[in-house]
Input
Amino acid sequence: MAYLVLSILCSVLIANLLMAFNRRSKESVLPVFLGNYLVAASFSLISVPGMQPALPWGDLGLGVLTGAFFLANFWVYQRSIIINGLSLSVGVMRVAMIIPVLLAVLAFGEKISLLNGLGVVLGLAAFSLKADPKELHNFLWIVGLFLISGLTDASLKIYKELGSGQESAFVFVIFASAFVFTLLAILLGKLPLRIKSVLYGCVLGIPNRYSTVFFLKGLDSVPAALAYPLVAVSIVLLSIVCDIVIWNKRPSTRDALLWALMALSLVLLNLK
Output
């Protein structure tokens, strides 16, 4: 259980670090992403077993596409954190698993339970609470985050179903591609590349990696049926606390109902 707690804390720390950077600096966040993906790609390269056969072209192409999704997802995520707050953005990223769930059902013939289906409905219903015509700009960021997060997760599901199984090499391609895309965006946009921002991203990359490492270790002692909903809901709830205590967000009744729907949706989506 201790590993799951560490995974939860790492995930919440990532969101708070992004919020802190945007509060302190008016510069582009891309150099931060560059440092993050540099660390992630380096760790991933070390994890690739020696003498492993070359990745098939299909795996390579999907890895590059997923790397583009990772960068787009991270960028939209940090923008949504500033516009819509920490807790809502974190919750939307988690509820976006609805998209790979639907992909598994429609494309790969998997079956989901009635409770899983109810989780999908509740997750989508939560969006209706944010669909205020007066806040259309904010809502569009939420929709964008939901779609790009869902597509990112869906690409990983596609690899699980159709890939060669060389996961370590595939993960390296993802992060290396995200690093290259970030560098190209910085160069083409002629953005200042400050070492301080890159180093900040390197720090961000540490909890970004270990959130997954700790979660996988946690699965050795906690059943997956308990671990997945526990981690997902705990991250959302802890993000709500951070929003209120650290970032002084004053939730409305609609916000509270939205959070409750997302938390319940996450529990139902993760039930096996």
